[in-house]
Fold each of these.
Amino acid sequence: MAHNPRYGNWTPAMWRDRAPTLADLRRHQFEVILKCARCQLPVGVRLHITAAALGWDYVPWGKTRRCIRWRCGGTMAFWCYPPQTNQGIEMF
Ligand SMILES: [Zn+2]
């Protein structure tokens, strides 16, 4: 999908309205990762595996988890990459 500059002005709240749940993120083909705020480790999120554990109605916005890197202890937040923009959107 072609890059559309107007999406560069969208706030995280607007992206959340576009795709609040795992099902919406899949439907709109957003890539989703978890990224650690301390060590920056990026981990790809496979939506069907996350949904198998948490359900397709799960809302990852505002959620965090402990970093999976050995001995980091940081906090990971979800980021999404809408196909309409090159920007990563922090979902926290
Ligand atoms: Zn970390």
Amino acid sequence: MSSRIAVVGTGYVGLTTGACLSHLGHDVVCLDVDEEKVQALQGGHVPILEDGLDRLVVEGLHTDKLSFTTDVTRAIPGREFVFLCLPTPQAEDGSADLSYVEKACSQITDHLDSGAVVINKSTVPVGTTALVAAALGRYDIHVVSNPEFLRQGTAVHDFLNPDRIVIGADDRDVALRVASLYLDLAAPWVVTDPASSELIKYVANSFLATKLSFVNSVAAVAEAVGADVEDVIQGVGHDRRIGHAFLQPGPGWGGSCLPKDTSALAHIAESAGYEFGLLRSAMEVNVAQFERVVAKVEDLVGDLKGKRIAVWGLTFKANTDDLRDSPALKIVSLLLKRGAEVRAYDPGIDPGRSVMDGLLVVPEMFDATEGADALVVLTEWSQFRRADVERLQESLARSNVVDARNLLDLDALARRGFAVRSIGRR
Ligand SMILES: NC(=O)c1ccc[n+]([C@@H]2O[C@H](COP(=O)([O-])OP(=O)(O)OC[C@H]3O[C@@H](n4cnc5c(N)ncnc54)[C@H](O)[C@@H]3O)[C@@H](O)[C@H]2O)c1
């Protein structure tokens, strides 16, 4: 059954939600305040790198099932369901900043049809469903929590093949109406109250972040005792109680979600009287991991002042162009602070893009390594894994590599006499 849907906020989550729901046969209009973005989307140009999203946007425009606007009076009236996909960045005290959500509520409230269901897909603290209802100030509107679990880089796939669909509502019939939007997706539903639904999203991201910090700590132990972390992970991950996912050591975790969501959960817990020490430790381990990567570079080249360092990868993960809270940028910033000259290459980042003061972004991977004292691999793009080792050696001034993603072939590098530091590998 086709429903009339509006999506407020057309970023990574909103655009994926809008395009996928139109693909499932619903009639969707996406509303955003960013005129440039809306104009691009009206012309079928997707401003973000996300596999398969451009195809769905073009399909939706072609079938007239998907449209884009900045006009709230066009977007909201006549819509049975209104999704909120707005930013919830980290506030100074570590809590989630709800000002975008509140502002959008004030903009849409006068235009909502009586009986409409407002569905919050933004990641928000416990109590926000009630806060949205209060901000709307309409007693003829339903508000439901429906957190999103997609991963950037595979957002379309994840939206259409979710592990579960979580819906939090005070009224079960309204929850089931929201669930009906996803009838074509084969996924279990978890229908619960709004507080539990809101908490589920934070718990999921905090658990994943903790798992990553745990494995980075295990990698540090492996280095100290002469074990190989990759073999340790194999041995542990086959245990079905543990699994292999998110058990990959790296330069530290980042992106637009894990840092702000762990911080928000720690803040929620503290405000409720519980000191979430385990989560705080996971966050501290992560900050220390950025430093550990820089220490590995220093171990190879000595004092960084005046040294030329090549960086492969700036985005927080491969197959996205998103730099928000990227661990690579934290590490580059530390390298620059210690006086290194840094040249970076990333397949998702236009060399013209101004990323950080003092950082030169170059168009090719071997432009970055030319004459460098060391290469540091910070994002797991597959083209780095396949890099020609001979060419790499020819371009570098010194055969030093810090592989913070455990991506490169250690044996191939060793055969050519490279000095290599990775994360917990022997
Ligand atoms: N990015 C992810 O991987 C991901 C995954 C799951 C959940 N989330 C959560 O989803 C929410 C959105 O994240 P995102 O990454 O899509 O953010 P984003 O910054 O990519 O997109 C937000 C969009 O909202 C628009 N916007 C801001 N104020 C508006 C207003 N008043 N009216 C209309 N549009 C407005 C912005 O212009 C922007 O296009 C956040 O709460 C985030 O934590 C993100």
